Amino acid sequence: MSINVAIFFGGESVEHEISIITANQALHALNKETYQVMPVYVAKNRQLYTGEELYNLENYKDLNSLVSKLKQITIYKVDSQVHIYPVKRNLFQHKPLFTIDVAFPIMHGTNGEDGTIQGFLEMLKIPYVGCDVIAASAGQDKVIMKHVFENSNLPVIPWFWLYGHHYMKDEIYYNQKAMDLGFPVIVKPASLGSSVGIEFAYDKDGLKQAILNASKYDSKLVIEKALSDFKEINCSVLGNRYAAQSSELELIVQDGFLDYDGKYGQGSKGMVAAKRIVPAPLNENESKYIKDLALDTFMALGASGVCRIDFMKDEVTKQIYVNEINTIPGSLAYYLWSPVGLSFEQLLEKLIHIAIDNYRAKEKMTFSFETNVLANFDRKGIKGSKGIKQ
User: Fold this and answer.
1) Which of 128, 147, 178 is the last residue of a domain?
2) Which pTM does this prediction carry?
3) What tens digit of pLDDT does each residue of 32-85 get?
């Protein structure tokens, strides 16, 4: 018996196109004998669509033309089943287009990776791939994420955070905090990915401009000490809070910092130009330390599915820092699993089974009690805990 999998992708985030690429890889990789797959495209206006045209990447070059060819859909639950129906259907169309057994969100960034769609899927009460609402939202918000890391005694680069509009009220205070870190610093919007809105600041004037620019994307900002000489090392983790494993490590070698345009912009070689060395040329102790640190990071956040944890190694002090976690990484970080013998198809299958296991474990938990307080409700008699006499 096959499993019906709905792959959600797109969204209104700045990483809309990156989500399309990752989802398209998954759409073509899932075993069609084991899984019945339906693409669910979330347009930038948040409307949902499906159609065979979604399988061809060439069609996404003109999104307006693509959407005009698709079928707009709606999702709702009847008894214990979650169905996909066309928004426009005739009087005699009673059968759903698709019944979802497992949802597979591949939506990077805002409203996809931040707990929003996870909350929607929780309300539908179906298994879904990846982090739950809390882990997803904490992983997307760099401020909360770093607080979790620090509280779990994980090493992070010296930092502080602020609301952009607060800087304008107290420039002296925040300039001093940046000077205490030591220029240059790096300014990041708290809840975006793909290097959107990130800028370096080399002095107070540069800090102000970077904060103004980053505030266009997010009200909450992170200010970090910029390392002068570092290596970027990435590790993926696969599993859930009950059991997880770390992947091979990769070393990213690139010519300076790549912003969004540098990674994906027209005419740019982008991430292709960033050389990936897998496995990373590290000694055995260093590799084990980073892999263990990746597992600790995954568990501290209560993550699930497949994540990529990015590390920074300060070449001056040799200190290794946890930089951030990506709870829905680009290409689902499959390139870090193939070196340990896990194909992309096998990775997708593991993620679906983890989703089902998570759902079964949650079903055994108690979330409510069989009581009905309102059956005995008396507006005059109920005073709450304050009415209890000691």
Assistant:
1) 128
2) 0.88
3) 999 999 999 999 999 999 999 999 999 999 999 999 999 999 999 999 999 999
